[in-house]
Amino acid sequence: MYSQNTKVCRRSFLKLAGSASVVGTLLTQITPELAYAATLPHVQHLPISPSAYSPSRLLFYDRTAGHSETYMLDSSGSLHFLHNYNNWRTSWNSIVSGNFSYTGNTGFLLYDRSVGEGEFEFVTPDGQIEYLLSNYGWRTSWDSIVSGNFFNSPYDQILFYSRNAGYAQAFTTDGYGNIAFVRAFSNFRTSWDIIKAIKITKNGYDGLLFYDSNAGLGEIYALNANGGLTLLTYYPGWRTSWDEIVVL
To answer: Taking CA 242 as the corner, what is the angle to CA 241 and CA 245, rounded to the nearest 5 degrees?
Structure first.
């Protein structure tokens, strides 16, 4: 099939969905119930508030300084400071949001490639970050980590992808920071540039969108509880210059 390294946007102006524009890799978009980790090589969506009526919250991360801040975004587009943290490690490579917490608050996964460590945390409605669990002994070669509700499960599932190896693994999560292996894939192509979770069914399940810029190819797959990938649609002839694909 199959393959990537989640490109995040080049350092240019980005248009916010339903909002204004910002410079650089600070934010990629703002949509209801979404927040974003900033100044990382990989910028991922970070939905923090589970309530459709709650204001959006944003997480900013300065990797060099080991500093993070949470903000609330109100309906007028104004940001309100909530909390700051000065003791974050400076080696997180990816921050991936998802439904990872038994508390009902949306959480996120931090991945440190240099030591092969993943850490689950969640964010309270007032913007406080709470620790769930650390996982050790992970591969140090993951280029892309994608979370989504791919099949019927209380919490989101995760797909890890190593581009050079053309290798991927799927896991479930349990709400307490533990992950359970579902399946490995050794035949992914080594040229996927972007992998995104995308809604594909009326019951809310996600699929996986793969984009290969060199080939100008897009593919959409469904992932089932046994780890089976089913090709849904195949799109040859896509533009080869897309830097980012944003799910709105």
So the answer is: 175
Strand order in the sheet with 56-62: 56-62, 67-73, 79-85
User: What is the domain range of residue 198?
Assistant: 13-235
Mean pLDDT for the stretch of residues 131-144: 98
Q: Flag whether pLDDT at 199 surpasses 50.
A: yes
6 within a domain of the structure (yes/no)? no
Q: Which residue has the higher pLDDT, 10 or 202?
A: 202
pLDDT range class, residue 16, cuts 50, 70, 90: very low
Tokens of 127: 């913007």
Q: Say if 2 falls within a structural domain.
A: no
Q: What is the count of structural domains for the chain?
A: 1
Q: How many CB atoms lie within 10 A of CB 87?
A: 7
Closest CA to 46 of 118, 105, 134: 105
- Distance CA(98)–CA(156), nearest Å, equals 6
Domain of 193: which CATH number?
A: 2.120.10
Residue 231 in any domain: the answer is yes
pLDDT for residue 169 is more than 90: yes
- Given a cut of 70, whether residue 210 has pLDDT beyond it is yes
